[in-house]
Amino acid sequence: MALINKNLSLLLVLFCICSGLRLRAQNTVFLSEGKIEYEKRVNLYSRLDENNAWSDFDKKLLPNFMVSYFDLVFSQNKTLFKPGRENPDNNKMFWEQPGEDNVVYSDMEKRQGVSQKKVFDQLFNVQDSLRAIKWKLTDETRVIAGFNCRRANALIMDSIYVVAFYTDEIITPGGPESFTGLPGMILGVALPHQHITWFATKVQSIAVRETDVVSPIKGKKVDNATLSQTVQKLVKNWGKQGHMFLENILL
Questions:
Q1: 150 belongs to a structural domain
Q2: 251 residues of the chain, pLDDT tens digit each
Q3: How many domains does the chain have?
Q4: Is the CB of residue 175 less than 8 Å from the CB of residue 188?
Q5: What's the CATH number where 114 sits?
Q6: Within a domain: residue 15?
Q7: Please, which residues bridge with residue 90 across strands?
């Protein structure tokens, strides 16, 4: 009798586990279109320390972090990343960072991208293939904006170490700026040595029209190599600060 009760208890436990797994699978929503808000944070103090061109007095004029917001609209294999809501605490007259006005269109199926980037007073329309990033997946996980994410690491532009967190619950393989190539949407990116992060603050499941995800058309047409050469000429006498500026433009 005791053996029968024990077997019944075991069967009941297994039934509950299986039912829970089925319920979880039924309730999981895999998004293929919607809108994501990203918060971009730049540690200005750390960047100034590395540049060695600013005093403690200069720091007092600036906040420790510059925080800005971007929106990413996605539908199937296309994304459009663009500036979002304004942060009233930002005073761009004193600490505007390169890349704050970027508009980035990515077509993951065709592996093509179009980016609208402002360099000083000149606007460029950068048309090129998507960056091929060799990601290395890890077992580390975290929750971002309510989504389970897995960590991946990579090296871009020869020396920039990238930490990314993606979720396969959003099937579009995109991300902020030009970060793509993982099996799902990238909801978090950190560049530890550049002191820059992008993390999703909210994800909205909304209907996206075809006209909502189109490539930018303004600016002088160039490819990434031409843009890099142009910027290098402009900042050739800036030393380390010029290298940091170039990195930010090419991200």
A1: yes
A2: 444 444 444 444 344 434 443 433 344 678 999 999 999 999 887 877 666 656 566 666 777 788 999 999 999 999 999 999 998 877 655 556 788 899 999 999 999 999 999 998 899 999 999 999 999 999 999 999 999 999 999 999 999 999 999 999 999 999 999 999 999 999 999 999 999 999 999 999 999 999 999 999 999 999 999 999 999 999 998 888 888 888 889 99
A3: 1
A4: no
A5: 2.50.20
A6: no
A7: none
